[in-house]
């Protein structure tokens, strides 16, 4: 089949929240039939792999309510209007870890779950210029951890870091540094 595109026939907002919106669409399929599509619209996010002079990455350990567990992730957050993606990344890095970075490089973007959400997470890496006090949002409780890049790669490969954005950023950074 040459044309795989689906056409939206109708759209209804089911939930309109602060960071996500749930939409129920009726779509026309390539073969002419119709299907219901449930879509989570998301404001998008940014993740930063901050590497210090010892080639250690800064992580945050925090409770993730949907999974009911504490996870270890690279600092990240949602995009806020009025700032560029990179400005959002710098803000999240500073708030969550206290780090200020320099020499930011884009590691691209990722689609965390293409089956039901339009969320896009932008990935960056930088070098750490300084480390100060963290200032997380009032509903964020996190501990900062510093882990050598090579150990972080091993943790990804051993399924110790289940967060997708964290895995992708670590592996892309490692590949970037080792393909020079």
Placed side by side, the strands forming the largest sheet appear as: 7-4-9-8
pLDDT below 50 for ≥5 consecutive residues: which ranges?
none
Mean pLDDT over the full residue set: 95
Number of strands: 10
Level-2 CATH architecture of the largest domain: Alpha-Beta Complex
Binned, the helix content reads 10-25%
What does this structure look like?
By secondary structure, this protein is α+β, with helices and mostly antiparallel strands. It folds into two domains: 7-42, no CATH class; 45-178, Nucleoside Triphosphate Pyrophosphohydrolase. It is 21% helix and 46% strand. It has three helices and ten strands; from the N terminus they run E-E-E-E-E-E-E-H-E-E-E-H-H. It has helices at residues 85-97, 149-157, 164-178; strands at residues 7-16, 20-28, 34-42, 45-51, 56-64, 69-73, 76-78, 99-110, 121-131, 142-148. The strands form three sheets. A four-stranded mixed beta sheet has the order 7-4-9-8, with helices on both faces. The longest helix is centred in the C-terminal third of the chain and has 15 residues, at 164-178. The protein is globular, with a radius of gyration of 19 Å. The N and C termini lie far apart (41 Å). The mean pLDDT is 95.
